[in-house]
Design goal:
mainly alpha, elongated, single chain, 1 helix
């Protein structure tokens, strides 16, 4: 994220909605969070 909290240039075409590159960066983070949540149950 930028200092203002927006997505880095190239990862979101409008600063909010991810591009394919943005989703590629987010994927491992989302999977790790899901795995932690499932394991905690």
């Amino acid at each position: 994220a930028t200092p203002e909290g927006a997505m880095k240039p190239g990862l979101a075409s409008d600063g909010v909605h991810p591009t394919p590159a943005g989703y590629a960066v987010m994927r491992p983070l989302a999977l790790a969070a899901i795995r932690r949540t499932v394991a905690a149950k």
